[in-house]
C-alpha cells in the first residue's frame, strides 16, 4: 500500500485538504488552491533541491621539474611576513611584494612544484605604474606619499599561485520571490504582494575556477583582481619568470576544495537566478549540486603588487598583470581635506560679500 503524503501550503505552511468539488488541494488557512499535479511537481523539485550537495574531485598529482629543464632560480625569503618566493638569479635588491619589507634574504633554490600552466604578464611595469597613477587621480585628498615616484617604482611583478578547478554540475535550486503591484484610486493607495516559490534545475559546467594558493595573499584581495582571460594561458616555461617573482604555494589543493565548492554553489545560484524575470527579492532557499569529472590544476597568474605605508598603516594595491585592473583602498589626508573645505568656505564668503555690496550699492 502506498504511503499517504501530507502536503503543506507553500504560502503559509498549513496542511492542505483535497476539495472534491474543485479537484484541487485547498488551504483553509490562507484560502489558496493548488492542483495535485502542481504539488507533486513542487514536492519533487524541493526534494531534489534539499538533497545534500556532493562534489567529486580527483586527487592532484604534483609535477616536478624534469632533469632536462633549464631552471635557474634563486629563493627569496621575507623575515617580516615569511613569504617564500622565487625569482631568476639575476634579480638585484628588491622589496617583498606582499608586505613591502625592504629586507629580502636570497638563498639557494631547492625546487618547487611545477605549475601546469601560467598566464604571462601583458602589462609591463611602466604601464602598471601609469595605471596606478591614473587610479590615484580619482581618489580625493590622497596623501602625497601615494604620488612619490620613488615609492611607486617599488612595485613588484609577482606570479601568484592558484589552484584551478574544473567540473560538470547538475543542480536543483529553489527560490522565494515576490511580485509587488501598486495602484491608487481617489481614496486610497494600494499595494499587493504575491509570493512565489520558484524551481530551477539543469546542468552547468565550470572551467578555471580560481582559488589562490598562498597564505600571504588575502582571499578578498585576490578575488577583487579577477577576472583573468584564460585564453592566454600557456604551458609553463621558466622563461616567463624572467624578471618577475613567483610565489611558492603553501595552501594545498585539498585545503582549497571547500572554498571552490562555495564559489561553485554561489555561481550556480546566481546563474539560475538570471533565468528568473519579472520578480523582485529573489532569494535562494535550498540548492543541491552534484558535480562530476572534477579536475584540479596548478597555475601562476600575473599580478603587480605595491605596498605604501601611511600613518602606521600599510596600504596594499594589486594590478592585474594581464588586464590592468587596479584594486586597493585609498586613504584621505585630513589636512588636505580640511584645507579644501576652509578654502571653499572662504571663497563662498567672498562671493557672498561681493553680491551683497553690488546689491546694496545699486539700491543706494
Account of the protein in words:
This protein has 364 residues and is of the alpha+beta class. Helices cover 24% and strands 35% of the residues. It contains six helices and 14 strands. The strands form two sheets. Strands 4, 5, 6, 7, 8, 9, 10, 11, 12, 13 and 14 form an eleven-stranded mixed β-sheet that branches. Strands 1-2-3 form a three-stranded antiparallel β-sheet. A hairpin with a 4-residue loop joins strand 1 and strand 2. It is flat, with a radius of gyration of 30 Å.
The gross shape turns out to be flat
Question: Structural class, from secondary structure content?
Answer: alpha+beta
Q: Which regions contain 5 or more consecutive residues with pLDDT less than 50?
A: none
| Strand element count | 14
Helix content: 10-25%
For the sheet with most strands, the description reads:
11 strands, mixed
CA radius of gyration is: 30 Å
**Secondary-structure element string:** EEEHEEEEHHEEHEEHEEEH
Note the total helix count: 6
Alpha-carbon distance between the termini?
106 Å
% residues in beta strands: 25-35%
Could you report the average pLDDT, rounded to the nearest whole number? 83
Amino acid at each position: 500500500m502506498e504511503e499517504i503524503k501530507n502536503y503543506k501550503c507553500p504560502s503559509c505552511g498549513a496542511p492542505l485538504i483535497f476539495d472534491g468539488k474543485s479537484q484541487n488541494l485547498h488551504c483553509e488557512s490562507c484560502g489558496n488552491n493548488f492542483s495535485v499535479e502542481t504539488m507533486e511537481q513542487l514536492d519533487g523539485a524541493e526534494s531534489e533541491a534539499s538533497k545534500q550537495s556532493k562534489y567529486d574531485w580527483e586527487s592532484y598529482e604534483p609535477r616536478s621539474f624534469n632533469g632536462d629543464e633549464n631552471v635557474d632560480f634563486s629563493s627569496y625569503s621575507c623575515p617580516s611576513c615569511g613569504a617564500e618566493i622565487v625569482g631568476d638569479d639575476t634579480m638585484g635588491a628588491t622589496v617583498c611584494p606582499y608586505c613591502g619589507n625592504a629586507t629580502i634574504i636570497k638563498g639557494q633554490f631547492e625546487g618547487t612544484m611545477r605549475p601546469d600552466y601560467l598566464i604571462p604578464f601583458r602589462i609591463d611595469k611602466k604601464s602598471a605604474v601609469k595605471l596606478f597613477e591614473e587610479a590615484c587621480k580619482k581618489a580625493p585628498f590622497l596623501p602625497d606619499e601615494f604620488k612619490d615616484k620613488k615609492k611607486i617604482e617599488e612595485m613588484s611583478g609577482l606570479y601568484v599561485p592558484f589552484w584551478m578547478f574544473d567540473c560538470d554540475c547538475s543542480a536543483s535550486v529553489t527560490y522565494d520571490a515576490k511580485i509587488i503591484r501598486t495602484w491608487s484610486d481617489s481614496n486610497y493607495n494600494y499595494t499587493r504582494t504575491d509570493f512565489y516559490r520558484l524551481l530551477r534545475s539543469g546542468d552547468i559546467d565550470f572551467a578555471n575556477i580560481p582559488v589562490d594558493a598562498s597564505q600571504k595573499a588575502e582571499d578578498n584581495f585576490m578575488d577583487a583582481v579577477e577576472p583573468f582571460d584564460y585564453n592566454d594561458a600557456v604551458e609553463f616555461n621558466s622563461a616567463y619568470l624572467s624578471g618577475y617573482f613567483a610565489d611558492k604555494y603553501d595552501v594545498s589543493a585539498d585545503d582549497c576544495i571547500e572554498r571552490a565548492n562555495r564559489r561553485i554553489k554561489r555561481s550556480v545560484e546566481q546563474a539560475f537566478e538570471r533565468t528568473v524575470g519579472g520578480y523582485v527579492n529573489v532569494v535562494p532557499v535550498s540548492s543541491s549540486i552534484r558535480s562530476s569529472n572534477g579536475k584540479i590544476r596548478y597555475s601562476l597568474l600575473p599580478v603587480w603588487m605595491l605596498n605604501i605605508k601611511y600613518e602606521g598603516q600599510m596600504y596594499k594595491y594589486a594590478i592585474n598583470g594581464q588586464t590592468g585592473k587596479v584594486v586597493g583602498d585609498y586613504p584621505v589626508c585630513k589636512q588636505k581635506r580640511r584645507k579644501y573645505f576652509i578654502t571653499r568656505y572662504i571663497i563662498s564668503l567672498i562671493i557672498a560679500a561681493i553680491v551683497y555690496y553690488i546689491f546694496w550699492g545699486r539700491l543706494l
